[in-house]
Design brief:
The chain is 32% helix and 21% strand. It is of the alpha/beta class. The strands form five sheets. The protein has a ten-stranded mixed sheet, with helices on both faces. Strands 14, 16, 17 and 18 form a four-stranded mixed sheet that branches. It has a two-stranded antiparallel ribbon with strand order 3-4. α3 packs across α4. It is globular, with a radius of gyration of 22 Å. Bound molecules: inosinic acid (IMP). Inosinic acid (IMP) binds next to α4.
């Protein structure tokens, strides 16, 4: 039938996992289109919590086929750990997971390089997840990367690993003073992964386009968020892929005309993990309080997240770049106890008023925020089932976001569990 893209609208960690899991109920296929094991998509069902890094968040629903597209970079060690974890939790991926042969692999030297590059920087550290994402995408675009399909051909694999390591070992030793890695042990390990992965490999583009012809629904799951986009985010403090919706076409092998809808996932406040500009960031105690209220620690690295108020120019940037037609607003309940809630509506640099998030990093670092203030609702929302039953001031907050962004909020999340969700009838999918 058509494709519905789910994109992160801030700096990632907006709660995409929960919303993708929720929407998967009415989906035939769930397909991840970019990023890698830097992502941490959390799904909570009662007392069970699943954190997925590579496998799409549709996997929890037994009727959904899950696809890892060519745009994703795959660390087989993480992939098979995740498959094992799911198996232990009675979720069998057999016959329900398809992996693009064109997807690039993360190799041990990518992770070593990622960490060495970061720790050698005196300033301007990016604060990467250390999962080898940047170096793996560098090899992809340098045309020296190793792809999933290469795991099936011993000679090609050995040759490519040797060629890559010849160069990487020199860089590691000369620039970073790091010990050389052995090609043969990596070859052995990756040949084993090849045997394990062979049953999952498919031509994902053909599979997805056939599914569309058969009137199937596809949910395209993005990772990270708009402000971490390598082209449009707070460069260089970004990830090495394009989380925005257009990347779903390239990362899955589907045409733009197949996309029917784009939902932006947006947190009721803002967080970011890692370094870089963050206009509405709280300082000191306020940041700590919000972090504690929202349990804001990275799902992949456990790092404390930086916190701040909701930022309208950032939401508008996400809307513009991804063509977002509705929002899923998450973690509204985290604001339940606050007296006052602020929204950044525009910025200033000196006397100059700025309505759009600037592209220039120097400007991004200088932004002062213009806020409006709304009264809190000071009552719990976590058990509420219908929009009408939300406290008046909570509805005012949601409607103010709709008014300022001109995009409807179709889903509201008021707790981590699948059933702590309000789907507004007027915007049903
Ligand atoms: P990398 O993607 O590991 O190279 O990290 C680059 C930047 O993106 C760092 O600031 C990371 O903290 C951030 N980042 C990467 N993945 C995620 C994510 O899934 N959620 C939030 N931040 C992320």
């Amino acid at each position: 039938m058509s494709v519905h893209v789910i994109v992160g609208s801030q700096w990632g960690d907006e709660g995409k996992g929960k919303i993708v899991d929720l929407l998967s109920e009415n989906t035939d296929v769930c397909a991840r289109y970019q990023g890698g094991p830097n992502a941490g998509h959390s799904i909570v069902l009662g007392d069970k919590k699943y954190i997925l890094h590579l496998i799409p968040s549709g996997i929890i629903h037994s009727g959904v086929i899950n696809v890892i597209g060519n745009g994703v970079v795959i660390d087989p060690a993480v992939l098979f750990e995740e498959i094992e974890f799911l198996k232990k939790n009675d979720i069998d991926v057999t016959g329900r997971l398809k992996i693009s042969g064109n997807a690039h692999l993360i190799l041990p030297y990518h992770k070593v390089l990622d960490k060495a590059q970061e720790s050698s920087k005196q300033q301007n550290k990016i604060g990467t997840t250390g999962r080898g994402i940047g170096p793996a995408y560098v090899d992809k675009y340098n045309r020296s990367g190793i792809r999933v399909v290469d795991l099936l051909d011993e000679n090609t694999l050995r040759e490519k690993i040797k060629q890559n390591l010849y160069q990487k070992n020199k860089i590691l030793a000369t620039i970073y003073g790091v010990e050389a890695l052995s090609a043969e042990s990596i070859v052995e390990q990756y040949l084993t992964y090849g045997e394990m992965i062979s049953g999952f490999i498919d031509d994902v583009s053909i599979y997805l386009n056939d599914a569309l012809k058969k009137d199937k629904n596809i949910l395209a799951e993005g990772a990270q968020g708009t402000l971490l986009d390598v082209d449009f985010g707070t460069y260089p403090f970004v990830t090495s892929s394009n989380p925005i919706s257009g990347a779903a076409c390239v990362g899955l092998g589907i045409g733009p005309t197949k996309i029917r809808r784009v939902t932006g996932i947006i947190k009721a406040y803002t967080t970011r993990v890692g370094e870089g500009p963050f206009p509405t960031e709280f300082s000191g105690k306020q940041g700590e309080e919000m972090r504690a209220l929202g349990d804001e620690y990275g799902a992949t690295t456990g790092r404390p997240r930086r916190c701040g108020w909701f930022d309208v120019p950032i939401a508008k940037l996400a809307i513009r770049l991804s063509g977002i037609d509705s929002f899923a607003l998450t973690k509204l309940d985290v604001l339940d106890t606050l007296d006052e809630i602020k929204i950044c509506v525009s910025y200033f640099i000196g006397d100059e008023k700025i309505d759009d998030f600037p592209t220039n990093i120097k400007k991004q670092e200088q932004l002062d925020c213009e806020y409006i203030s709304l009264p809190g609702w000071k009552s719990p929302t976590t058990e509420i089932k219908k929009y009408e039953d939300l406290p008046v001031n909570a509805k005012r907050y949601v409607e103010k976001i709709e008014e300022l962004t001109n995009v409807p909020v179709s889903i509201i999340s008021i707790g981590p569990d699948r059933n702590q969700t309000i789907v507004r009838e007027s915007f049903v999918f």
